[in-house]
């Protein structure tokens, strides 16, 4: 004979069992919700919330301090042959992807010479230039000319202070910057009348420097004018330049600026 239950039932299942299951589901959902919120808050903390760190005014970097200029906490910079270049305007070097994942905020000298895409080869310092083969010297010289020709040099790495890159710099003079045809490269090698020296020779330009505007096609009336370098606008990939007699600064590509000769 069946024994009557004091607890009501739903589809033959005790109400107490149903309540227990529902409470368990509610607890699981509450835990999942808290976990999602925690993950979201951690992600938000990882994202930059304020202005990026400014480049050092004295242009002096160490391997450690260069790491902060990774395109997130500071402008996207990388090291090559002892120099630090600001590649924020590059379309091929972006944060967290491809070359940017390898070299953003790091020294790429060894990697460029050996054509290595291994993460562990970035910031490598336990090598000498003498150990490179002629082909590796040529490769490094080509990349050196490419980066110092196309992007502004914003400083130097102290770890390379006693290194002599004369061989690389000399070899670079015979190299064609990547992305330029020979005719255009030949034109770029000739220093403008009022500029000294040519951009690819590694001129370091800083805020306050007098610069010569050249090669602007959209506003040819600007060519030949002298302005004062203000700052690098990373999101635009351009320098802000204040022209004499003008109230508002203008934005110009690095390729359209060279350091003006002292008067």
Automatic annotation (TrEMBL):
Q: Keyword Transmembrane helix, does the record have it?
A: yes
Q: Which terms are listed as keywords in the entry?
A: Membrane, Transmembrane, Transmembrane helix
Q: Which Gene3D superfamilies match?
A: Cytochrome b5-like heme/steroid binding domain
Q: Where is this region: Disordered?
A: 176-202
Q: Please give the start and end residues of each transmembrane region.
A: 12-33
Cellular component (GO) terms are: endomembrane system; membrane
Q: Which SUPFAM superfamilies match?
A: Cytochrome b5-like heme/steroid binding domain (SSF55856)
Question: From the record, what ranges are coiled-coil?
Answer: none
Record field: compositional bias (Low complexity): 188-199
Matches recorded under InterPro entries: Cyt_B5-like_heme/steroid_sf, MAPR/NEUFC/NENF-like
Protein name per UniProt = Cytochrome b5 heme-binding domain-containing protein
**What does the record give as the organism's lineage?**
Eukaryota, Sar, Alveolata, Dinophyceae, Suessiales
